[in-house]
Amino acid sequence: MIAEIPFWQRKRLDEMTPAEWESLCDGCGKCCLAKLEDEDTGEVYYTDLVCRYMDQNSCQCTVYSERLQKVPACTVLTPETLGDYHWLPFTCAYRTLAERRPLADWHPLRSGDPQTVHEAGVSVRHRVMSEADVAEQDWEEHIIHWII
């Protein structure tokens, strides 16, 4: 019996079903970090602040279906918009597949367990605080350098 090649290895990103596309998210929470952009250079800096709607234990959005109403600037990845998000971390599955790299062993699609992203230390779990707890003028004090 020949094992079926996983969809992420046989389909282009723009060929995936909505469910397949959503399953690519590893649940790391890095796209929910507040980011600061240098107006002169365009360089993006991550902070240790997350959206007020992120469950910091699961690294999941608590208002996912309503997120665009509550946070109009929320990241919405599609095959068409993927290139707009040059700041996606190296570990992001969407970026990984767009760059034709294999998914990491800790990715839930490979491991079969959504906890492996946390166990591998790839997620933001236990490393962040809510943006609601910090005045925006103080966000620069929360720039981090541990995102890859």
Automatic annotation (TrEMBL):
Signal peptide (from-to): none
Top-rank lineage group of the source organism: Bacteria
Stated name of the protein: UPF0260 protein DIT71_09110
HAMAP family xref list: UPF0260
Coiled coil regions, renumbered to chain: none
Organism this protein belongs to: Marinobacter vulgaris
Family stated for the protein in its record: Belongs to the UPF0260 family.
